[in-house]
Amino acid sequence: MAIAILAHGKFPERAKTALGVMRYGDDDVAAVLDRDRAGERVADHVADVPDAPIVASMDDVGAVDALLIGIAPIGGEFVESWRPDVRAALERGCDVISGLHDFLAEDDEFASLAAEHGCDIWDVRRPRDDLSVAEGVAREVDAEVILTVGTDCSVGKMTATMELAAAARERGHDAAVIPTGQTGIMIEGWGNPVDRVVSDFTAGAVEEMIVERGDEHDYLFVEGQASIVHPAYSAVTCGILHGAMPDAMVLCHRAGRDVIHGYEEFTLPPLPSYVERYESLAAPVHGSAVVAGALNTMDVDGDDDAREAVREYGDALDLPVADLVRFDPDLVLEAVL
Predict the structure, then answer these.
(1) Cross-strand bridge partners of residue 219
(2) Residue 290 near residue 277 (C-beta atoms within 8 A)
(3) What is the CATH number of domain 138-336?
(4) What is the pLDDT of residue 13?
(5) CATH code for the structural domain at 2-123
(6) Where exactly are the structural domains of the chain?
(7) How far is Cα 222 from Cα 248, in angstroms, rounded to an integer?
């Protein structure tokens, strides 16, 4: 399927959904919409994803099957300046894929256009109606369950999940991803959007996916969300942790981050303290250990400085650590498997 990705004003630094889909998805990206960078190319900014032109609007995009919203503002609200592009896509018969908390299928104009032109609107964050509470049975599956956890939001948990699952498969292991957020669901084509699920059902939504896939694979890599120290999003982190009942955890961090993203008045706790925090929170439900770390060095210029940042993070945790995109993942994968 050929798609265009909307990322106005955010590409690439604040467009993690766009980058995740480009890096790990199966669709052909025909163009990225960012009016601030129109005329440039993806390769001018990101080297490890397929190249595509950056254009100002859907009027500059050739034939595509769908428009994907590749950014998610805090709160997941729809931005009205995007309306002309969504409207243009629907008028051309393109499907629209959105991971926002504002459901586009409930917008009267968009719903009418979709019906008129025979296209679909997929609100990825819309949970199913039949979710329920956890039964505490995820630990009974045959697969080893590995959960990525974080020091903060937007540190690379989804990326680490995808990289570790891919590395495991490349080495002949039967591994699958359990997607819990909009980007993972867009990539995998299924999943439960746990940050939109009723709080009582969060752990159950994760457990359901573990049970569904747990006897089909040897390893399940669960996409983590947020952080247990986040002032706004810690609840979803705890729900995933207790619903998944992981056998092992990988602690993800972004080099240079020392305050909560978007909540800069909150300072990150010392990095080594996260190990005990996550392990003690998991323990009453299912004993789990943080066995490795994944460091996102996208803000570090030069491989030498990035290697030094990885070394420092490994020393802080006293665990195997790697940047799973920039360098070899073998140390982390060995610790996980």
Answers:
(1) 144, 175
(2) no
(3) 3.40.50.300
(4) 85
(5) 3.40.50.720
(6) 2-123, 138-336
(7) 10
